[in-house]
From TrEMBL:
Keywords: Membrane, NAD, Oxidoreductase, Transmembrane, Transmembrane helix. Pfam families: NAD_binding_11 (PF14833), NAD_binding_2 (PF03446). It comes from Teichococcus vastitatis. This is NAD(P)-dependent oxidoreductase. Residues 174-290 form the 3-hydroxyisobutyrate dehydrogenase-like NAD-binding domain. InterPro entries: 3-OH-isobutyrate_DH-rel_CS, 6-PGluconate_DH-like_C_sf, 6PGD_dom2, 6PGDH_NADP-bd, HIBADH-like_NADP-bd, HIBADH-related, NAD(P)-bd_dom_sf. SUPFAM superfamilies: 6-phosphogluconate dehydrogenase C-terminal domain-like (SSF48179), NAD(P)-binding Rossmann-fold domains (SSF51735). Residues 12-171 form the 6-phosphogluconate dehydrogenase NADP-binding domain. Belongs to the HIBADH-related family.
Amino acid sequence: MTVQPIAPPAPVAFIGLGVMGAAMAANLLRAGFRLTISSRSRGKASSLEDAGAAWADTPAVAARDAACVALCLPDTSDVEAVLFGPAGVAETVQRGAVVVDFSTIAAAPTAAFAVRLARDRGAFLLDSPVSGGPAGARDGTLTCMVGGDAGAFAAAEPVLRAVGGKLTHLGPAGAGQVCKSANQLLVAATLQAVAEALALGRKAGLEPEAMRQALLGGSARSFVLENHAKRIIEGTTTPGFRAELMRKDMRLALAAARDHGVFAPATATAAQMLEALVNSGRGGMDSSALGELVAELSGLAATR
């Protein structure tokens, strides 16, 4: 089936208005799409409604006339419920419509959802988990890692361009989720290494910020060292990305490694430390609070 390009002012539905979703929906409005929104709480929708978005009480109502339906939800079970549960997207989505799931969820169920949506409704599902955090969502510069039908990807590119700065089509349904798991395991494993390095420096009497600057000048430079290490040193635990969400993502990464028979000790260690971090009562803090836990376990006082 040929899918027509979904360009402004095409009707787009956006379901899930958390920190990321609300910012992405706002960018779709600014790009000129005719936007309908739905979420568990209408309170999160007020600013978008003021800007011109229409409210829908259920995902089914939101999806009814949409050429594209975007989702940004917490976990696999949430996506399944919004797609196939009572008053879900699959009740009304049009034949040939493209559903773009920006959530970070498990890859195998994603592939199954795509098959089911195509079989039952003649609609396409793209998995497009994103990286770039709240700032990237606000600025429209997210990295979109996309799996699914190539024709649907091409048709939905204007929608993806409204929220993302880098788009990569990686293969069939589920491929985007596998890539996102790889992204998260790299971030978490690097964060664990950075936390240990800073603890080592402190135990040896080095000034942490001077050490960070020295490391940034060499081959150890990374986004995590540049940003998360700064948060660790300053004791900033206000969440940009909550530890409990990173724990969820690392569980997904571990499952992906098991599914594909990958020897993954770094992933396993980082996942174990995220479990410990959340179990220590820090689940609502930024994931960089891992540095605080490593410092504690090293016999160091917190920096804040």
